[in-house]
Amino acid sequence: MEGLEQWKKQAEKWSSQALEHIQAEKWSSQALEYIHQVPPEQIYAAIAILIFTSFLLILVRLFKRPKANTILLSGLSGSGKTLLFYQLRDGSSHQGTVTSMEPNEGTFVLHSEKSKNGKVNPVHLVDVPGHSRLRAKLDDFLPQAAGIVFVVDALEFLPNCRAASEYLYDILTKASVVRKKIPVLILCNKTDKVTAHSKEFIRKQLEKEIDKLRASRSAISAADIANDFTLGVPGEPFSFYQCQNKVTVAEASGLTGDISQVEQFIRDHVKS
């Protein structure tokens, strides 16, 4: 009896599959009959619309990129980037030098905006280590960058002017920075000190050093600079106004919390 029951179940299964097959063939036959009745011009038009729609969807996926909301803090070690990071995040003041060997990274509402009513969009802030061996980490974040804050120590500027200029030159000639026209803010930090240099003095000295670098590096073979862009206008002294991306200069003091100009730069490029 058990064998008979199994045979009946199997027979029912085969019968069901046969009916499904017959129904599928019937639908297929009806579809072919309908297609034969449709004028060829309508079929061609439908195929063309389908291809065109698929092409548009592919284009949208290729060109639609996530909105950039990342601000990068770059500059030499000791310039005050990490202290600035903490000030922007929670308003804390770390006494002395705060050195980071790994990127400090976080997404948060700026400390000065936490008391504001209404919705305030958070900022993704990355403090890139200033050590020469770790600067390559900057490239990891450039695809999402809405702006770069290049921090300069206004107190110890002259001894570090050449090194800061070389680092800034490398940033301003990066293809990813130039093509996307990523704005750069040169932030003269530690301006609360009496002996700190002014932002105008720092700007002029950086322009002079970059002009020298531009002249010396122009002798490098094209193969060595294939991925870089040339700065400035040939035959004219270099000025930040000649850059394809916007370069501005501001002052701040991470230690005292006087960071309103960098906050304004952030909000100009990461909308709240």
UniProtKB/TrEMBL annotation:
InterPro entries, per the entry: P-loop_NTPase, Small_GTPase_ARF, Small_GTPase_ARF/SAR, SRP_receptor_beta_su
List of residues binding GTP: 75-82, 130, 189-192
Lipid bilayer topology: Single-pass membrane protein
GO cellular component: endoplasmic reticulum membrane; Golgi apparatus
GO molecular function: GTP binding; GTPase activity; metal ion binding
Binding locations of Mg(2+): 82
Domain of life: Eukaryota
UniProt keyword Acetylation, yes or no: no
Keyword field: Endoplasmic reticulum, ER-Golgi transport, GTP-binding, Lipoprotein, Magnesium, Membrane, Metal-binding, Myristate, Nucleotide-binding, Protein transport, Receptor, Transmembrane, Transmembrane helix, Transport
Presence of keyword Protein transport: yes
Main location: endoplasmic reticulum
Subcellular location: Endoplasmic reticulum membrane
GO biological process: Golgi to plasma membrane protein transport; intracellular protein transport; protein localization to Golgi apparatus
Transmembrane segments: 43-63
CDD domains: SR_beta
PANTHER family reported in the protein's UniProt record: ADP-RIBOSYLATION FACTOR-RELATED PROTEIN 1
Family to which the UniProt record says this protein belongs: Belongs to the small GTPase superfamily. Arf family.
Protein name: Signal recognition particle receptor subunit beta
Organism whose genome encodes this protein: Prunus avium (Cherry)
